Amino acid sequence: MPKIRHKSTNKAQFSFGTLSKIEALMSQGHSMISAAKAMNTPFSSLQKRLKKNNSSEPRLGRLPVFAAVVEKVLSDRIKYLSSIFYGVTAIQIRKAAYQYAEELKISHNFDKSAKMAGRDWLDGFLKRNSISVRKPKATSINRITTFSKEEVQLFYRLLVDLMNKYKFAPNNIYNRDETGISTVQVPGKILSPKGMKRVGSITSWERRKNITLLCGMSAVGGFVPPMFIFLRKGMTLQLEKDIPAGTIYKCSDNGWINEHLFFEWLQHFAMYTKPSSQAPVLLILDNHASHTSLMMYDFCKQNNTHMLSLPPHTSHRMQPLDFTFFGPLKAIYK
């Protein structure tokens, strides 16, 4: 583990603001010694700074291996690679730092046997350059290449046109999405006796299966009772035990949504939202194939429901339910 060094000295307490005040006192006729005493600043430190015109923040300890300019080149490269979904690991940076120092013939105290910088250097480098260690989310190439400024601007232009034309009330603007929930929860850490060989935690099922959950939520927080889709041929009353009011349960051969089940959910949605010509409803959803059919179009047209599709492969950045509801739901469920 890196060493944690607590500061045990009163040195380097002054700041750039203190130096500015000292210079102001000296411009008023005070000597350097009297100005240093007035601001409780060591005279020798002040003399060195004024002589070298050094206005940087004071610091303790030895200087970093790399100069600030060299570190900036390295940190800019790290940030750029992260922005294009090719981020580097801490080990890779430590090895790169060692190679960098060797090629530039910079004196260093890195581990020559492992040929990489130490963890102390890495911690200091990250702190100095506003970089943190993060766990990335797996993102497909389709999502990376399709998510573009033009696609997003087109979506918002269509949204503005619909809002101007139909004047949707906030409680009539809905986002709809589905997600898969595993039947086997991931248990967290628990307390158990030392030396105990087997430590278990109860889960719903023995083998992992996904259950699809369909939700619809309005801009003001109102929601339509959800739909659950199970991977099975037929329903059983046991699955509907203790269900929330209004929830509907369906089955499919693969446990996912299909055109028939989406139409059933759309009827369920219309029953709860009660759209009318005076209060039309806007439904924002992804562009899954099950959502685009003549049957859906006719139903929405007859029931004053207007559907707006998110651009393809952009739901990971633009789907409200993913960020505000499904994420916290899965975290609590686990």
TrEMBL record:
Annotated DDE-1 domain residues: 211-334
UniProt KW GTP-binding keyword: no
GO terms for cellular component: nucleus
InterPro entries, sorted: CenT-Element_Derived (IPR050863), DDE_SF_endonuclease_dom (IPR004875), RNaseH_sf (IPR036397)
MF terms in GO: DNA binding
TM stretches of this protein: 211-231
Keywords: Membrane, Transmembrane, Transmembrane helix
A Pfam cross-reference name: DDE_1
Protein's name in the database: Pogo transposable element with KRAB domain
Organism: Eumeta variegata (Bagworm moth)
Record gene name: POGK
